[in-house]
């Protein structure tokens, strides 16, 4: 009996200990939501009206670096017709239970209006005073996670401001329900979620279970036809003494279901945090906007995408389809254009595959797609409706269900130059100028005697004489080649091939012709190099460099080009130490051929710089140079990990807080006896506020023995060596320090 | 216990020894007071030597003030034990040309500071002579200082500053002193001693 | 009426010998015991049980506690003087003048001239002892010595314990003013106020004991002239030793959990010092008095 009682006691004890340990482990693995809340800011865009600042737009933002870099949306911060303010105010979470308090002004450091991502840099105090370099206190910031690791049904936490009322920063939880594919971002151009994310959370952060930012909730800017949107009248913007419809309302936006993956922001963050400004000197800053209105046309479906192009064209798909893309041509689009995809299945709106109104991230004209893969599509009749700026643009229907149809198909069109053995040579989608272009495609289930047609286009216009109407005699399955030999040869530009079976589009693909021929590959860009000079003019004649021992004021990149037709989409990318910090994709707008296309990079820090030139997403050439030691310096402040340390210093006699007491944390390399009052030995300094509260702006690293010194006139000093936190320590660490009068 | 009583009528008379005891006591008190004063002076005036060969500056600054060479100055020392604005002594240099005069440099300092200091106000200029009789210009000013952390309730402090600027050997040397306006006069002698001891 | 007369010659009734002076040691002992009791009780209430008072009430309570040494001294030292045959004169005068001197000279000298707040807390332990000795210690002891010397010495000194009585009066006056200044400046909680009051009481009393012994030896024993200065210096040293220990014991080291002051440790130290200083002084006085009696007896 005694032994039974003893056994029961031991069992209960073990159970208790296990429960406690598992709850501790659970709490240790939950991320620090308070740190994320502190890093979440509220952004006002405002305009000056006399002595007043009138709020024009609001959004949420997230601090992503200790020196005040804020990630948010572009539509609520970049000045445009709706958000017409010129001042950006940043409100900080001082008390997590209270609304944020305006503290700083910011400027746009980097922006991609198409992706609707903007990076703001805090530059001034609220009163407009410049913040001197190095004097901005280290702000709490979040870690950017890898959005490519996000999975369907993954839990996310969205942090932001739910409204512009008295509410503090809020959170909402949900899951990822779908990925939306587009050419700009591939399979993960958007995350979809069913979370209820209010419009003012746009620009905030979506976090994974480790507390890493994996997406930016994004809603479209308000337009007149955006019926879900709301616009609040909260201030007398026209200063007539009344708040009514005559005043400017603040657009709030509808509920958000789309999240821009955080990987899109990485290059912008890198460029902004390193202070890298790229200027393209050869072409003007202001690109002409299209005159005609934007439009979509030629909608069709494809079950897969190859190099951004449809593999084939389908009108229906069998049951258990898990991949579907809507392709369409677009024209006259700009980064301010708002587009939307509404999908219905059997007449019922399907929120999973719909794309709510968002900004256009493509170029002015071309072929686009929206779709998804590895996600099941239920059987039904799907109608895809495209809208531009809230108005219906075009629509198309596809049927999913039934068994796999055995229908003749053409697919997988690739382009190149034919060799003597009949092989297609080249990179598949960029051909040099010449006299002939060949396209190989795969055919399946063909029946001899079937009518089929091939048709070629050049820059959107049918090439006269290129249409071939033929009767199939090539067998049931295999691949074959069609050739284009236009009169006058292949001119630089964008070409298209359409293949029809019985007058129904079965396959289509585009390719670009540019550059001189060197074997099957085009030479479009050449002589890519770096140089340094006192001026852009001087850079044109300075010999190239591959290594610079010291830092430079301006680094110039140059290259020659040949036979690129205006309108050909090209891309320039700039990387430092292998990480992208600048990317520009746009139609070519200068001469077809030329020398010394010039780009400049201001104040590059030490690192290895690579500029890459692409056409049609295929890398044509690159150039590399190293500056200084050839590697970026390690920024010790850039680590978000660690334990925040704060507390209160009180007078032991009065129990009241003592203001303006400095607490000095000495680096782990030095003890109190080694401390000679040199800033080099100091890890961080915190000073108490009027209530005696203090907060170190650098988190403490675990298992690191710091030393602590507190000295204040009239009080006995406190010193300690071995001030060390471990995994069991509180996080954040908040302590009370009592100082004794002498 | 029996009572030992002294005849009161003889109390007013002290023996010579007793008188000497009292006189010696006064002397000892004075000696002690002097020792106390010396201890105070030696503690408050304790200094640390600073040498910067590159800038050619040797200085003595108050001990236990935090030395900082990481900014755009040659040296900066702050009294971290001061509750309130941390009293600052700073030495910086600026490049000059043959046409540059002190007033140009002071104007430049002021224009830059007006961008970043709260309520920066120049109080006035005056002539100043360094210990080696070198002429210099002194500029006094005030501004408001506040702990920059946005998460704490820092209260602003009015600070009085003094710049002593002299142009020598092709560069301008600026010695700056900033202290809480309430303790400025009390702590100014520290700066004056610093100027006495600096060698450049 | 019949009267009966007893014709035997009988000795007259023996008269009880009446001690004509207030017994100083008894008074001091009672005062010290009550002060210790009050301090312990207040500290228990404030620090152990953690009873906190509202700010204004705290100030009132602290203000009342400042008077506790004075009230005890009046009750057990001053008022009993009126009930003895040979009362000591000028006790109140010494106390009041000491207080005034402390207020006018002592505190300003320490706070404004020596400015110990600015440098003393940052020194090493030995430097702090020396610093307190040569600043606070010598100022306090010098003022008390001068006041006793010029008001009551030697005209009011009839016996050795007179020096004790007058030096205690001086210490009460001086510590009262010091406590007033400290409490009004810092405005501590009532329990810490009690600690400060007891601390000043102890420091002043202990140093006054030494000064009193020096004065009594100088007057009754006529020793070498250096005796009195040494006793004053030693009294200053007593102040220099006690003061840093009180604050040092209260200051606790910091850990990753923070720190909390240890007023109980300081209180314990002060109680021990007070008892030790009283005991030692009583011992030396007793030895001195016995020596005096032997001299008188041998002269007889």
Give me a quick take on this structure.
The complex is a heterotrimer of chains A (742), B (200) and C (300). Chain A has 742 residues and is mostly beta strands.
Percentage beta strand of chain C: under 5%
Average pLDDT of chain C works out at 91
Instruction: Decide which structural class fits the backbone of chain A.
Output: mainly beta
- Total strands of chain A: 54
Output the structural class of chain C. mainly alpha
* Secondary structure: number of strands of chain C: 0
Report the helical percentage of chain A.
Answer: under 10%
The helix tally of chain A amounts to 4
- The backbone outline of chain A, from C-alpha atoms, is globular
The strands making up the biggest β-sheet of chain A line up spatially as 1-2-3-6-5-4
- How is the biggest beta sheet of chain A arranged? 6 strands, antiparallel, barrel
Assembly context of the chains: heterotrimer
Query: Fraction of residues of chain C in helices?
Result: over 70%
Low-confidence stretches of chain C: none
Strand content of chain A: over 45%
Radius of gyration of chain C: 23 Å
Q: What's the structural domain tally of chain A?
A: 5
Task: Compute the separation of the termini of chain A in Å.
Answer: 63 Å
Number of helices of chain C: 10
Approximate shape of chain C? globular
Can you give keywords for this protein?
heterotrimer, A: 742 residues, mainly beta, Thrombin, subunit H, Immunoglobulin-like, 47% strand, B: 200 residues, alpha+beta, two-stranded antiparallel ribbon, 3 helices, elongated
Question: How would you explain this protein's 3D organization?
Answer:
The complex is a heterotrimer of chains A (about 750), B (about 200) and C (about 300). Chain A is mainly beta and about 750 residues long. Chain A folds into five domains: about 35-275, Beta Barrel (Thrombin, subunit H); about 295-400, Immunoglobulins (Immunoglobulin-like, Sandwich), CATH 2.60.40; about 410-515, Sandwich (Immunoglobulin-like); about 525-625, Sandwich (Immunoglobulin-like); about 640-740, Immunoglobulin-like, CATH 2.60.40.1120. In chain A, about 40% of the residues are buried. Mean pLDDT of chain A is about 90; it is low at about 20-30. The longest helix of chain B is centred in the first third of the chain and has 29 residues, at about 15-45. Chain B starts with 15 loop residues before the first helix and ends with a helix. Chain B is built from three helices and nine strands. Chain B has a seven-stranded antiparallel beta sheet, with helices on both faces. In chain B, strands 1-2 form a two-stranded antiparallel sheet. Chain B is elongated. Chain B has two domains: about 15-40; about 45-195, Mog1/PsbP, alpha/beta/alpha sandwich (Protein Transport Mog1p, Chain A). In chain C, about 75% of the residues lie in helices and about 0% in strands. Chain C has one domain (about 40-250, about 260-285). The model of chain C has no long low-confidence stretch (mean pLDDT about 90). In chain C, helix 6 packs across helix 8 (about 190-220) and helix 9 (about 225-250) runs antiparallel to helix 10. The relative contact order of chain C is 0.13. The radius of gyration of chain C is 23 Å and the shape is globular. The N and C termini of chain C lie far apart (about 55 Å). Classes of the chains: A mainly beta (about 750), B alpha+beta (about 200), C mainly alpha (about 300). Chains in contact: A-B, A-C, B-C.
